[in-house]
Every structure is written in C-alpha cells, then in structure tokens.
Amino acid sequence: MSWKSAYRSLYYQGAPEPEGMDLKPEETALLCIDVQNHGMAPKEDPSEQTRWQPFSERMNNTVIPNIHALQDRFRSRGMDVIHARIACLLEDGRDRSLSQKMPGWNNLLMPTSSEESQIVSELAPLPGEIVMTKTTDSALTGTNLRLVLSNMSIRNLVVTGIYTDQCVSSTVRSLADESFQVVVVEDCCAAGTDELHRREWRS
Prior knowledge:
Elements: E1 28-33, H1 37-40, H2 46-76, E2 80-86, E3 131-134, H3 145-151, E4 156-162, H4 164-177, E5 181-190, H5 194-201
Parallel strand pairs: 1-2, 1-4, 2-3, 4-5
C-alpha cells in the first residue's frame, strides 16, 4: 500500500490509485497554518495543563521541528513559504467571522498586534514572505489567498499546521474545491488530541 492510498476512507476503498503529483518547484509552495503563540501558551489551570500535555509534546517534539525543517528545505530551493494566522484587524474584533464571535473554542479575540496572534518564533516568517491574516478556519475562504496563488502561478500546496481537524482540514478542502493539488504532511500537523488527529487523517 502506497502513501496515496494508505489513509483512504470507506468511500474510496477499491478505487484506482491516483496518478502521481508533479510538484514543480516554481508551481509549489509550503503553507504553514496557525502555529501561533496562542496555541502554545502554557495553561494556567492544572487540569487544562494535563489535558493539553499530549498536544504540547507533539508540537514541541515533532510538529514544530518538522515544519522548521520543511521551511528550510523550501527556502534553500528558492520555493515560497506562505504563512496563515488567526488575527482580527480591529481591537474589538468586529471584523471576525461569525464562527469566531460565537461562544466556545473558536471565540478568539486576537488583534494583529497582540503577542498571542504572532507566529511562534521557531517558524516566524522571514522578510518578504507572505502572511495571510484570517478570521475563519479556512485560509483560503477567509483571505485573498486564492487570488495570490493564482497570480504567482502556484498550483500545488504542501500544507502543515494546526489544528488538523479544524483550520487544516478546512483549508485543504477549500483548496481542493478550487482545483489546487494538496499534500498534507502528517507529522507536521496536530489536533487537540491524537485521536482527533488520526480520525481526521482517515476521513
């Protein structure tokens, strides 16, 4: 079983294996989604610290180092590294989408200037790299990323980041709907729990 069929869901079992992807450097970019200080900040509540410990370990020991290595490889080849982050343009967050104004997990009020909205230092954008600011899960529907990619003649995206079952999956599906070819790097992504990550990987 190859990587192209290893994580197939029920719907695609038995279907022909997809053709190989031709990831031409000039048509391929790395997209790093939402690895921000907010997600990596220590939890004050001890019970929350315990609950999020597996996530923190995966991020610090696997995801961040692997994304950093991928960034280095893309940059060394002159390929584009693009960043997406959650942040609002107004201090009161009126510009946020409905999903980020409703109570609960997605209710994030992070102005662009706030420390929590910044991309973690290990993966920080270099001068000249594109940073997309969004107030939606999808980095495509919440920004002008589609137009920017089209203008740059980018057809293939290698996707990394958090959370696998939310912003990563929403972005990947949006990109596929717009006919971009997408590769998601499993050990460069994380969800709140390993189970959520694995479940999304097989959906």
